[in-house]
Description:
It is globular and about 50 Å long. The chain is α/β, with parallel strands linked by helices. It has a single domain, classed as TIM Barrel (Alpha-Beta Barrel), CATH 3.20.20. The chain has helices spanning 13-19, 25-30, 39-45, 81-100, 110-118, 139-147, 182-194, 205-213, 237-245, 256-259, 270-285, 311-320, 325-344; strands at residues 6-11, 47-54, 71-72, 104-106, 122-129, 149-153, 169-170, 197-198, 219-220, 249-252, 290-292. Strands 1, 2, 4, 5, 6 and 8 form a 6-stranded parallel β-sheet that branches. A 3-stranded parallel β-sheet has the order 9-10-11. A two-stranded antiparallel sheet has the order 3-7. The protein binds zinc ion (ZN). Residues 129, 156, 201-202, 222, 298 line the site of zinc ion (ZN). Zinc ion (ZN) binds at residues 129, 156, 201-202, 222, 298.
Amino acid sequence: MxxxxxxxxxxxxxxxxxxxxxxxxxxxFQNSETGHIDLAKAKAGGLAGGFFAMFVPPVESFSMPSFxxxxxxxxxxxxxxxxxxxxxxxxxxxxxxxxxAGVLAVCRNHAEISSAIANGKMAAIMHLEGAEAIDRELxxxxxxxxxxxxxxxxxxxxxxxxxxxxxxxxxxDGDTGPGLTPEGKALAARCLELGVILDTxxxxxxxxxxxxxxxxxxxxxxxxxHAISPGxxxxxxxxLRAIGETGGMVGLNxxxxxxREDGKAAPEGGIEAxxxxxxxxxxxxxxxHVGLGSDFDGAPMPHNxxxxxxxxxxxxxxxxxxxxxxxxxxICHKNWLAFIGRTLG
Length: 345
Ligand SMILES: [Zn+2]
């Protein structure tokens, strides 16, 4: 496996598997023709683990925007909690099926990740992208926590009972609405008590500062620098500084529309833009608080970064751009693992 190995902040492989039906998930996880991540590609690229998102797609025929700037897409409607919970239970079941089959390990802390990687198993943190499946009283959170859930994004862009996300809008900053609701603040407090990561990617700026006020470290698992690509999903310099100051993390999103200066979803120049984002994020957040958050299986990828098998190109680009060996290792996995040690134990 190429080194340093990569532990990644965000992928949507479970969503892709779920869309294909629950039959044959183990085989499709081992080898997939169309996906960005499977075990064969992970081995070729040196991807050892990461945050595996569970995500409930919009009910109505919502089509992702064309990402032809300028754009400002209306958000899909809120989801019914019972509807969302059923799908999240299925997706958590897929992760647990992969774990039982021995092709992946659902990890709840730093020690479990280290041991999975030492045994050559894909290490997965169970993540919920958009907390629609959780009820206002947080009862379902207990069940999901027992199943292994250790990271929650209160919103995926569309509103939830917990907060408000940013729309797909370019150019725009993330100052697009009110902060966390009272239920969102209660969710943040419970995550702090339980030791669950609260992810601010997709959250608006007011919500971001509410997470900081709750005493949680600020983490954006898959977001980029607004100073480089000024779309609503990317983080301002103030946000990046606060991520460093709170001992948090930001993961570089490979999605072309979040990388490119012009906000287009086009594959050209993505890897060069990625280097500019990394440099800027390191400058603002500090070299101990920046990692990767690929968005594999969830976003269009740049040239030479098409799948997990192409990750050696990213390491090479970092070398070519004079990132030192120690910094490259931090970006590839050391920072995410240190953060997980601080937050999940
Ligand atoms: Zn996302």
